[in-house]
Each structure stands twice: as structure tokens, then as C-alpha cells.
Amino acid sequence: MQWVVLTKLINDLCGIYEQWEITDRTFEYMWMKISPQGACFGMDRRMYFDNHQTCYYLDGCYGAPRCVYSHSPSSRADKIVAVMLYHMPVRREDPTPEEKENILLVLTNDGYLKLLSADTGRVLRSVFLSTIPKFRYLSWSDYQHTVQVKSVQFHPQQNPCVLSQRSPLLTLVILKTHPIKLMASLVIDKQIFGKDATDGSVEGGILMIIHSSKKYFFYNFESIVKNYSVLSGDIGDEVIVNGNWGVIGQPGFGVPITIKMDELPPSIFEATSSVNAGINFGGVPFVYIHTPNPKYHHLFHIKDLATSKLVGKLSNDCMSIQDDTVGFHDDDYQRLMYISGPTLSCYQLVTDSLSGTIQMNKIWERNFAQSRSAHDQCERSSSGRRIKRARNLVNLDGLEVTVQDIDYENELELMYAVVTRPGVGESVEAHLHFIDDDTGLTNKIIPLPEWNEDEANTVYYELDVIVHEVKSDFASKCYLYRLTR
């Protein structure tokens, strides 16, 4: 029976792309669930509810997802505060238990990092980090290979004795996956990086420090590990720290600091940008995107990383309720995606083979606002006299029509965007646009009838499924739509 269901699912998915443009194929509402806490969508067609205590898989009968497991609510101490999913690696000759399954990497309120089976919710491994400081954030330092655990920022009332000697900002723990191994643990100290330091993280082997002056400083993390390590050891090893014996990762000892800096390491790069825009790197050769003047957060500069020469500028005078955003295409780091109000644009980075200079060419641009006809632009009075506009109102389209978000479906090589526009009365309508990646033209439009502009909306799409979550302060409503023939 399982093979029959699996074969049917594979055949349905294989036929999606070939029959995509058939007009009678659409998405139909299939299922809805209300949860007191937000939903989480994994890349493996799983949906998690109730603080990851309940898991559904998107292969159920009649379009509804199938419940994989449901555990009793966790206690306040065991409450999950952050979570990430990672997949099992290529099979090795002697895999560990955590390499045999897809893993949920979770951070709990009582300072534990736990590895849970994505199929059963069973705890495969637990690593105690610390309760002071409290760790609250999980992110990829190197996607699917290295994870970063970040603490909340220190406050004077947390540990006055430590603050009298140092000025810690936060603590970072860097771990390798497959299996979990300790790489480094360090405190970002204001006495080292500057009193105006406000945040820090490690990504792609680079330590990034953000300052209140909107300055971003980048440091070689591998060099920091090499030059400032004071302790070597892995999870489960016995070590002595400040005269105290303990086992790394065990309760009461946790993960000790392995890197202590007594001087500022040399920076390898620095730039200014607004906090919302940040700094993005990509392309070959490398370029970076930033806002050189944080006061003008809608003006983006794209520069050659090696020479800091300006490659291009992106800005728009369209008034919008959303901040403009620029990022690299999920499937092609030689392309830039620019969202400004109702407009979505795609640019290509091209390197001249002779001079080596980088150029930025526009591939396509799509304005989702309704185009105004020449008659609309040139109004006349009842007597026939022409009325001149003091300003072209097309610049106000961004206050009505807005590209809320874009994403990319790798399996179908299809881009999709969520676009909102005024509805009947004071309501707002939302639609999911499936966009041709090469031309920017819309292939299909799917309405999202449950959109609520007063609450947080998240739209997730994968192959034959659309999931729309509407989250308020009290509950989360999750709506599921499936592609029909």
C-alpha cells in the first residue's frame, strides 16, 4: 500500500512542471489548523506545530497532511526557543546515530542544545551549553556544515563581577555538524571591539561585528581561532578550566570559553550600511551590496569587493510602505533581485573578459501596479480643458500595491512573489504570482483569501503545496492549498 501511495505521489510531482501552464490546474483549499504557537515549515515537506511537539507530513490522503507524531506539551524549562533542520549527509562506512536520520537541532530554555529525530521527535543527543548567559539564537555559520549558537546580550545586573573587569556583549558557540563537534566558543568583548559594538556573528569563516555607528567590521575567524585559542577539546572531553575539572557539554560545566582575545585582530574589510539592509556578498568575482549613507536606506551601492569600485546603483523614487531590498538570486549569485514597492527587477553581473571590470545589466523589470493609461494620466474638465498634474501619481503606487516577498522553488526552477493591493473597501487582497525566471512574466496567479494585513503573514510554497500562516499575538492559523488536476 505504501509503495502505491509513493508511486502515485512521484507521478503527480513529475507531472506538475510539464502541465504547469494548463489553465484548469489550480490550487484548492484542503486543510486548516489552529495552533497557540507559530508553525514551522521544513524543507523535507514537514510541518511543525505546538512548539515542535506535533509534526505533520505532506503526504496524507485527500490532500490533508498526515500526523507523524504528537508529544505532550513540554515544561517551561524544556521549551524550545530556537530550531533548525538539517539533513543527513552522504552515507559513511560507520555513521553515528545522528547521521542516520534527518535532524531537528533545537535550543531549549534551560540551556541545552538537543538533536531530535525529525521523524519521531525522539532526543538523539543533548549538549548542555550554559544558563548564564542564556543562549537564544541558532543560525547557519556555513550552511548544513557549521552552526552558530548566540546568547542574549549581557546586562550589568546579570553578572556585575565580570562586568567590572570586562565589557562582554554576547557569547558565540560554533559547532560542526555530522556529528556535532565543538569548534570554538568566544565572548564578543566591547573592550576589544569598541564600546559602540552592538552585535556579532560568524558566517562563512568570517567574524562580523556591527557598531552603533552603522559600521561593519569583518575579521578572519580562522586566524582568530589559530592565534587566540586557550583551550582545545571536544564535547565529552574532560578538561580543567580555572582549576575546575569537568566534562564539556555536561550539566554543571557546559561549554567553556576556548578563545580569549587580549587585542583587536586586524580587520580584513569594513563598510557602512543601515542595519535593515546589512551587507551582502556574492557573485564571481565577489561584489558586495550596502547602503553607504544609512540615512538614505533606499539607495544601494553594488561594489567590487577587491577594488571597492562602484559597479552600479539601485534606487527608486516610488513611495512605499515597505523598505526596498536587494539580494542575490537563490539559484544564481550572478543575478540580483531588487524589490521596490510594486516593482520587482532582475539584474545580471557580467565581467569584461579584457579589462576584468564588472558591469550590471538589467534583465527584466516587472511593475505589479495597474498601468495607467494615457487617458488616466491626462484628465480633462467638464468643459474639455486639460488638467495638468503637479506630480505623476504613479510614484504613489507603492502605497497601494506592494511586493511583500519573493522566493525560489529549486525543484521547479520557479520564482514566486506575494503581492498585495487594495481590495473592496478598506480590505487588502493578496495573490501569489508564479514568475518566469527568465522574463519576469507571470505564469499563474493564486489568490490568498485569508490574508490579514493587521497580522503577520508567511507564505510557503513547495512543488504541489501552498501553506499560508496568519499569526496573531494569541494564535496561529495555518491554511493548506494543494495543486489539483
Summarize the SSE layout with pairings.
Blueprint: H1 2-18, E1 26-35, E2 40-41, E3 46-49, E4 54-57, E5 66-70, E6 80-86, E7 103-108, E8 112-117, E9 123-128, E10 135-142, E11 146-151, H2 160-165, E12 168-176, E13 181-189, H3 190-193, E14 197-203, E15 206-211, E16 215-220, H4 221-228, E17 238-241, E18 244-247, E19 267-272, E20 280-282, E21 287-290, E22 300-304, E23 310-314, E24 325-329, E25 332-340, E26 343-351, E27 358-367, H5 374-377, E28 379-380, E29 386-387, E30 402-409, E31 414-422, E32 428-435, E33 442-447, E34 456-462, E35 465-471, E36 476-484
Antiparallel strand pairs: 1-36, 2-3, 3-4, 4-5, 6-7, 7-8, 8-9, 10-11, 11-12, 12-13, 14-15, 15-16, 16-19, 17-18, 20-21, 21-22, 22-23, 24-25, 25-26, 26-27, 28-29, 30-31, 31-32, 32-33, 34-35, 35-36
Could you describe the 3D structure shown?
- The chain is mainly beta.
- The strands form ten sheets. Strands 1-36-35-34 form a four-stranded antiparallel beta sheet, with no helix packed on it. A four-stranded antiparallel beta sheet has the order 2-3-4-5, with no helix packed on it. It has a four-stranded antiparallel beta sheet with strand order 6-7-8-9, with no helix packed on it.
Largest sheet: 4 strands, antiparallel
The proportion of residues in beta strands is over 45%
Low-confidence stretches: 1-10, 13-23, 160-164, 371-378, 389-395
Instruction: Give the mean pLDDT.
Output: 85
Supply the helix-strand structural class: mainly beta
Bulk shape: globular
Question: Any idea what the radius of gyration is?
Answer: 26 Å
Taking the alpha carbons of the first and last residues, their distance comes to 23 Å
* Tally of helical segments: 5
